[in-house]
Recover the amino acids of this structure.
């Protein structure tokens, strides 16, 4: 049976969708043990998921970007001798697993779409234009971070797993001077939403129409780099090579030209609808349905029609 | 700040993302042409700003690992403003994975550092290479150099011997600090890279570049064998353009009709 070690830098009262998804991956691959940098006061309740046989943590809470998180992974690997060490594809996890891979002399794949128990992983590269499969050359473990939306998110409830503390403590290598929680947007999470409305320079700083459209569709809001650089929305909404990758069922692109860096983050979407006043905009090359027109005319028509249909 | 500071910025030579990029039959990326990765201009800009703002002596070295053509990335970095360049090139580094890249670059950094003995050092990298896109080399390098890694920096300042970084950790915005030596990976949010002017381009011709191989680092090809290799690569089928309509006052209704027909409402 494949032994999977799943790393979460921080577990709070409820699993994030990405964490739940990872446990589904692990359950499908074999038997999973979770190693967590920190647990909430309630302990491992959130990890009462089918396939999780135990939870490891440090002597005290360890928070990113403390390099001790990598030491914790290494210590957990020494206990379990896993075939796979997996984590969600977030920067803090990439850091911890990368560093752990050096100590473990092991292969690493980041941003994978899937992995196998025999140490191979698939990944999309070159701005999403190629699909590759990589394989470790020796016996495991393989360390990998997995992109969101690569498994169905159906974690099955189970008994609360036992927690064992390892003798790894937080270090003082990095000092956290200040930390502020980003305010919740009140909309679905961008990487997990089934519909995304994304806007670019074309909205010229006025978000009212795209916000209304997102509202009618229950969609998350995304943006191009030009729009986030201008400060019209937080950088966390940026879709593309240096932002987030989304793969919703429906992506509506509004006033975005569709540069290669932007496409990198959205071209695996189910259906792409583009609204742009320039008929030569590259986004039309990949749109399933394109409207050449001014967004200030087209969006009100869409919003009215959606409202009319709802009655 | 007492003493001098040596900033080593890592620059990678990558195929231009604006052109078609392909992986060949040999499962290697076609590297016949390339540019200095645009994301690696941001750490270089950070290095130059630190140099300009600090009273103490700051030396900025640009380091690349790649085939002979990669010297173009070093040359560009010298034009933008680095003081000197280093180019690690070796047959054995073709098709290097993350493990190999970080092993070779860590040894190369120690080699570069040895040219400014007694200085404090700071390693700056991009947030991700535009071909590898692993974002894993920075943390691996830091692990090998046994220094802290402050990744995904949106703001970098040097306060005495401490480097202070603003970064996003999950849903939390952090301000974190580490004492030098340290490694920082810099995002495209951090700054607006400068362009080299004619004077800078002329001046760069006189700046020194050192080219070296694994043997110069005391490494054999066995010390840098990849842990992971590509076994398959295929282009994703291109998306086909679908129906395009021109707005005549009813495009919005037609779009909603399309969504409804596709079962997307
Ligand atoms: C290394 C690197 C990384 C990058 N990473 C990213 C990334 O992650 N994400 C990203 O998005 N970009 C990224 N970029 C930038 C990218 O190359 C483009 O510059 C950017 O995506 C353009 O944003 P835009 O489409 O909003 O603006 P523009 O390219 O200026 O396009 C605006 C579009 O709006 C249309 N328009 C204007 N007014 C209207 C109107 N009234 N109605 C309808 N249409 C209208 C115009 O016809 C035009 O097509 C990156 C660039 C580099 C070099
Ligand atoms: N071959 C290389 N030569 C120089 N720098 C590199 C190389 N590979 C990676 N880097 C640096 O590491 C960063 C992250 O790369 P990656 O982990 O490949 O996404 C890049 O932005 C570069 O600064």
């Amino acid at each position: 049976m494949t032994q999977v070690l799943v790393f979460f830098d921080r577990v709070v009262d409820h699993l994030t969708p990405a964490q739940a998804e990872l446990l589904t991956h692990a359950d499908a691959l074999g038997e999973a043990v979770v190693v967590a940098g920190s647990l909430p006061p309630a302990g491992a309740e959130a990890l009462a998921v089918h396939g999780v046989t135990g939870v490891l943590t440090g002597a005290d809470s360890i928070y990113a970007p403390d390099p001790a998180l990598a030491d914790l992974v290494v210590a957990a690997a020494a206990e379990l001798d896993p075939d796979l060490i997996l984590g969600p594809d977030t920067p803090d996890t990439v850091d911890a697993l990368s560093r752990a891979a050096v100590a473990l002399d092991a292969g690493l794949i980041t941003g994978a779409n899937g992995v196998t128990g025999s140490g191979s992983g698939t990944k999309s590269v070159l701005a999403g234009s190629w699909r590759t499969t990589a394989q470790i050359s020796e016996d495991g473990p393989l360390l990998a971070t997995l992109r969101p939306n690569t498994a169905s998110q159906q974690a099955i409830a189970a008994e609360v797993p036992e927690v064992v503390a390892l003798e790894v403590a937080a270090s003082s290598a990095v000092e956290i001077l200040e930390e502020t929680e980003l305010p919740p947007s009140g909309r679905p999470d961008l990487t997990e939403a089934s519909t995304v409305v994304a806007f670019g320079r074309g909205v010229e700083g006025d978000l009212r129409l795209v916000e209304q459209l997102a509202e009618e569709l229950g969609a998350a809001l995304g943006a191009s780099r030009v729009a986030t650089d201008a400060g019209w929305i937080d950088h966390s909404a940026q879709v593309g090579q240096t932002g987030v990758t989304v793969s919703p069922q429906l992506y509506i692109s509004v006033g975005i030209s569709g540069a290669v860096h932007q496409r990198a983050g959205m071209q695996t979407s189910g259906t792409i609808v583009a609204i742009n006043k320039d008929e030569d905009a590259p986004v039309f090359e990949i749109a399933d349905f394109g409207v050449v027109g001014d967004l200030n005319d087209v969006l009100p028509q869409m919003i009215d029609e959606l409202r009319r249909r709802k009655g | 700040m007492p003493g001098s500071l040596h900033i080593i910025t890592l620059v990678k030579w990558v195929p231009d993302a604006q052109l078609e990029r392909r992986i060949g039959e040999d499962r290697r990326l076609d590297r016949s042409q390339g540019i200095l990765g645009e994301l690696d201009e941001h750490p270089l800009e950070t290095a130059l700003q630190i140099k300009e703002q600090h009273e103490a002596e700051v030396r900025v070295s640009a380091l690349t690992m790649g085939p002979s053509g990669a010297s173009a990335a070093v040359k560009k970095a010298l034009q933008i403003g680095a003081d000197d360049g280093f180019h690690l090139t070796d047959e054995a580094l073709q098709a290097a994975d993350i493990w190999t890249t970080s092993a070779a670059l860590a040894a190369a950094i120690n080699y570069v550092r040895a040219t400014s003995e007694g200085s404090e050092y700071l390693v700056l990298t991009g947030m991700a290479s535009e071909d590898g896109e692993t974002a894993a080399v920075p943390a691996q390098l830091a692990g090998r150099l046994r220094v802290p890694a402050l990744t995904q920096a949106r703001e970098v300042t040097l306060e005495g011997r401490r480097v202070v970084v603003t970064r996003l950790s999950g849903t939390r915005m952090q301000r974190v600090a580490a004492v030098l030596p340290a490694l920082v990976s810099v995002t495209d949010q951090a700054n607006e890279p400068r362009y080299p002017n004619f004077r800078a381009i002329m001046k760069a011709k006189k700046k020194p570049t050192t080219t070296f191989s694994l043997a110069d680092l005391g490494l054999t090809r066995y010390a840098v064998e990849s842990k992971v290799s590509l076994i398959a690569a295929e282009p994703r089928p291109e998306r086909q353009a679908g129906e395009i309509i021109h707005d005549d006052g009813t495009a919005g209704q037609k779009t909603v009709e399309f969504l409804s027909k596709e079962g997307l409402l």
In short: The mean pLDDT of chain A is 94. Chain A touches chain B through 91 residues (CB under 8 Å).
